TrEMBL record:
Pfam families: F-box-like, Tub. GO terms for biological process: regulation of DNA-templated transcription. Belongs to the TUB family. CDD domains: F-box_AtTLP-like. This is Tubby-like F-box protein. Residues 55-98 form the F-box domain. It comes from Gossypium barbadense. It comes from the Eukaryota. Residues 116-388 form the Tubby C-terminal domain. InterPro entries: F-box-like_dom_sf (IPR036047), F-box_dom (IPR001810), Tubby-like_C (IPR025659), Tubby_C (IPR000007), Tubby_C_CS (IPR018066). PROSITE patterns: TUB_1. PANTHER family: TUBBY-LIKE F-BOX PROTEIN 6 (PTHR16517:SF104), TUBBY-RELATED (PTHR16517).
Length: 393
């Protein structure tokens, strides 16, 4: 059987979802069969084993070769969905697919939902764009250059919804566009602002086990009280602050990001950033998070906006976005690492743009990120630029 026909048959077999799952799949969702399903007594599980039996019994060497060919051929979405389809066949297919598919840091591709929490590529930035819907206060993150160039082939990555409260604003982040419940498996985190919109905290529902997580005693107390609640606990993984501009001096916004979940040594020679490999169980993660929510000796990575230059002819502040930003806006920014001299970080590494965000249309913004940031972290930082900041401009 030709490889193309083989993959098509696997894809058709993996698309037997419910109507809701089909709807989300058309909007960019990626669904994978659960890792651990009860195989002992249910009739449904035995039916599934019978249905996938002819594929599950393939020799491991042949199966490895098939998945390697599929993975090497599909380098972008929607074709990348064939790789996800291979992981949806059965447990043996899923295990080998996980071994074949590399992290975004190694290959520069986003494949499974967990890729959104893994660091981006070291070599080239991963290019995305954000579509804003003012009427619903919704922000959608897509993979690709822009809606005009990607057309209907856009891959939906994350969706955020702004919730206005009396003393703050929350940006709830989900994997899908119609489920922002904190008790849902689609919930991945949120961005919370202060009353003035100058300080933000990034919360993650499931930080990696080796990440550096900090929290105040108050947050720790709240986490402990919420153990009995079905809602997922919250962990502060980063803090964003914008400098006040009380004198109304000319110039762009100045921002600083303290990435508690990323050590400063990650950008140094031989440094590594925390890379989660799977979404963990909510209750297990709650117990783990309660133990790891404490100050550590490691210094967190600090990001600052790159200082623009004043253009005399245009009479405006300018940054080189290399064609990815076309509209002047106070929201535009580039973030670079702010390393101390004692950290022995090379100058080229400090000048490398880790995250850039800018406007290209009325409600369209580009977002390009790279190692050591993940798509979730980059999206949360970009969302902070949308909030109103009258005291910073």
């Amino acid at each position: 059987m030709p490889l193309k026909s083989f993959v098509r048959e696997i894809g058709n077999m993996s698309k037997k979802f419910t109507k809701k799952e089909k709807h989300e799949c058309r909007r960019g969702g990626a669904y994978i069969a659960p890792d651990s399903s009860p195989l002992s007594s249910t009739a449904g599980s035995s039916t599934a084993l019978t249905e996938h039996g002819r594929w599950a019994n393939l020799p491991p060497e042949l199966l490895l070769d098939i998945i390697q060919r599929v993975e090497a051929r599909e380098t972008c979405w929607p074709g990348r969905g064939d790789v996800v389809a291979c992981a949806s066949v059965c447990r043996s297919w899923r295990q080998i697919t996980k071994e074949v598919v590399k992290t975004p840091e190694q290959c520069g591709f986003l494949t499974f939902p967990i890729s959104l929490k893994q660091p981006g590529s070291r070599d080239t930035p991963i290019e995305c764009f954000i579509q804003r819907e003012k009427a619903t206060s919704t922000y959608r993150l897509y993979m690709g250059l822009s809606p005009a160039l990607s057309g209907n082939l856009n891959k939906l990555l994350l969706v955020a919804k702004k919730v206005r409260r009396a003393t703050c604003n929350d940006f709830v982040i989900s994997l899908v566009g119609n489920d922002f419940s904190r008790s849902s498996n689609n919930y991945v985190g949120k961005l919370k602002s202060n009353f003035m919109g100058t300080k933000f905290n990034i919360f993650d529902s499931q930080p990696s086990k080796d990440s550096l997580v900090r929290s105040t005693n108050r947050s720790l107390q709240k986490t402990h009280l919420r153990q009995v609640s079905p809602r997922k606990p919250m962990f502060i993984t980063a803090k964003i602050s914008y400098e006040l501009n009380v004198l109304r001096t000319r110039g762009p916004r100045r921002m600083k990001c303290d990435m508690y979940s990323i050590p400063a040594s990650a950008i140094g020679q031989g440094g590594t950033a925390p890379t989660p490999t799977a979404f963990t169980n909510c209750n297990d993660e709650a117990r783990l998070g309660f133990k790891t929510l404490k100050s550590t000796q490691n210094v967190p990575l600090v990001l600052r906006n790159k200082a623009p230059r004043w253009h005399e002819q245009l009479q405006c502040w300018c940054l080189n976005f290399k064609g990815r930003v076309t509209v002047a806006s106070v929201k535009n920014f580039q973030l670079v690492a702010a390393a101390e001299p004692s950290q022995n970080v090379a100058v080229p590494e400090q000048e490398k743009v880790i995250l850039q965000f800018g406007k290209i249309g009325k409600d369209i913004f580009t977002m390009d990120y790279r190692y050591p940031l993940s798509a979730l972290q980059a999206f949360a930082i970009s969302l902070s630029s949308f909030d109103t900041k009258p005291v910073c401009e």
